[in-house]
Amino acid sequence: MGVVTFLSAKGSPGVTTTALLAAALWPRPALLLEADPAGGDVAARVPAADGGLLDTSRGLLPLLTAARRGLDAAAVVEQSQPVAGGSRVVLGLTGPEQAAAAGRGWAALAAAVGDLDGSTTDGDVLSADVLVDAGRVGAAPVHLDLLRASDCVVLLVRADAAAVLHARDRLRHLGNALRRRDGLLPRTGVVVVGDPGRRPADAGSAVEVLRAVGPWVEDLGRLPHDPAGAGVFAGAPVSRPERTALVRAGRTLVGGLAAALPASSGTERGSAA
Ligand SMILES: Nc1ncnc2c1ncn2[C@@H]1O[C@H](COP(=O)(O)OP(=O)(O)OP(=O)(O)O)[C@@H](O)[C@H]1O
Ligand SMILES: [Mg+2]
């Protein structure tokens, strides 16, 4: 069981869509942890497993509040709920004030999700990989402990010239910020998402620019710009979602990410330029 964290830099939307895509296609039990400090939006986008509304009284806020008294994996499971598509979700916060108020709660959460194998009060035991929507990451992220505790950190990058430069800047800082006490980094890499914009960057050259930050930056895959496929994860009625370009490419991406867990839980730290 492992933790895969999705995040972005300025100019690269698509984190929540990609985290939902990964949760829907994950080959093992998956729990989506909506941990974007700017606030969550899964409750507004995705129905519960029974087709009704998700229960917004359960989620990250009660977890982070309880974290002051210590947290275990069972508490995380308790605050999760099943969503349509078969995975579970811990719904996110309402906004950055809640994220800032959580303080050290993020560190307790990071420890609790590290090896999710928890029981619920109704007797279910859940062993799951945790997929984290960490949102857009700037300087001094409040949830840095959670990022650092991940087995794999995935930076989504739009194939747009400006977005690639912002992503390069974030990677340079993450190369230091993600370093653990043992000197290792989580496995860290980029997924380039197609962009229809005015200055699209070639995905291959975008990866080349980003990998030049350090040998620890991996090329983890590609996703297409596909509004129809993205609509599946935004509550839009889409016929035959499995045929969309996004879902088809998502299968390849998810296969690679899932296969790498949990064997590669740390990589030698390379030089961050
Ligand atoms: N691969 C894609 N192709 C086309 N559109 C996409 C793709 N991924 C996301 N989108 C669209 O981009 C918009 C933003 O996506 P999303 O909410 O996933 O981004 P985000 O990074 O989570 O943003 P936020 O900072 O608001 O949380 C949505 O309208 C979504 O449908
Ligand atoms: Mg989002």
Give a short overview.
The chain is α/β, with parallel strands linked by helices and 273 residues long. It is built from eleven helices and ten strands. A hairpin with a 5-residue loop joins strand 3 (81-82) and strand 4 (88-90).
Description:
- The chain is α/β, with parallel strands linked by helices and 273 residues long.
- It has one domain: Rossmann fold (3-Layer(aba) Sandwich), CATH 3.40.50.300.
- Helix content is 34%, strand content 19%.
- The protein has helices spanning 15-25, 42-45, 60-66, 73-78, 96-101, 105-113, 144-148, 161-177, 203-211, 227-231, 245-259; strands spanning 3-8, 30-34, 81-82, 88-90, 117-119, 125-127, 129-136, 152-158, 187-193, 217-223.
- The strands form two sheets. Strands 3-4-2-7-1-8-9-10 form an eight-stranded mixed sheet, with helices on both faces. It has a two-stranded antiparallel sheet with strand order 5-6.
- α1 packs across α11 and α3 (60-66) crosses α6 (105-113).
- It starts with a strand and ends in a 14-residue tail after the last helix.
- It binds adenosine-5'-triphosphate and magnesium ion.
